[in-house]
Amino acid sequence: MKVLHLLSDWKWTGASDPVVSLCEHLTLAGLEIQLAFRKAPENFPEKTVGKEVVKRGINGYDEFRLSRYFSFKDWVFDLRSISRYAIKEGFHIIHTHLNHDHSIAAASLFAASRGPLLVRTDHKRDGLDRGFAMKRLLGRTDGLMAYSRKILAKDVENFGYPGERTCVLPPGITIYTGTTQDLRSDLGVGPGEKIVGVIGRLKPDRGYDLIIKAFKLLRDRIDGVKLVIVGRSSQIEESIVKPVAALGLQGDVVLAGYRFDDYFSMISTFDLFVMMRAGSDGTARALREVLAAGKPAIVSDRGMLPELVDDGRTGYVVSDEKQLARRMEEVLTQDTLRATLGDAARRTAVERWDFGVQAKRCIDFYERLLSLGRR
Predict the structure, then answer these.
(1) 179 found inside a domain
(2) For the chain, how many structural domains are there in total?
(3) 309 and 229: one domain?
(4) What pTM, to 2 d.p., does this model score?
(5) Do 310 and 212 belong to one domain?
(6) DSSP secondary structure code for residue 18 in this structure
(7) Average pLDDT for consecutive 10-residue bins of the chain (375 residues)?
């Protein structure tokens, strides 16, 4: 089976990691996979899709334009090129991931009397945007995937999409097995103090206001606890600094910045992890990495977060700041409970989020769609 994946981005952000990782493990499973992506600017120093494709041994292709921003020349080029290339190379499926590559592939295939099936993965944390254009686009799409049962059900309802052409794809993760060190002293945290960890892009829409308010309630009840916030954003002043200062928490909140080399050491230093909103890719990778490290987590009931944390077994699901503060207090003050939740979190990550399981589910879906044929 030959599958062409399209990703209209070059940056290592949003859906990039889930897409590249899926292509890597589909390749390892024996499929002929090619990942077409937008070419990065020359000499860009940081991680890019293209660099990761080469590093992981994926068959890459950067001859399409795949520009999400308006460019008549680029869009016409792809309209003419994608279907022609896919048919010439004998691809059975074109698998798209973002609105632009989905739209341009559907338009390119529209005039073709023959050609591959069209599949879309919904990476959005709240589901695909409702509207006439998306409804028409999905009407020309042969299969729809999502990482969340809740999100997929929402898409099916919103667009009247046939359930037999859908699939919930379990998110994958690589379990870290390297060495770590305790970073408490580097963070200015005392040896007896507990740490509530937060990781993410520090934007106002990620629920940090609720976390900070809940932490204030927690600090009013117990001593010896610090909130460590890992991440960066140009909006950090509004999302973190001002709310922390307004509640007088400057001495209890540590802004740890963006971490790369010691990322997993940072995770291992946490006693508890909190997330109220997933990032733009919707799969909450940081949350899954923390759970895989054997740390319990408390999450909100939004998006797919409740599907990643088993309430009462690997952590807790809450709906407001008072519940969050109460659950944080329970976990931080009960060592046995914290260890039990963490052990279950590690087992869950190993059992559910294996990339081999993800690849098999995806292949089974491809085969089902090929048996159904085009819509």
Answers:
(1) no
(2) 2
(3) yes
(4) 0.90
(5) yes
(6) H
(7) 97 91 97 97 94 97 95 95 96 97 96 88 93 96 96 96 96 91 95 95 90 97 97 92 96 94 96 91 88 97 94 97 98 98 96 92 98 94
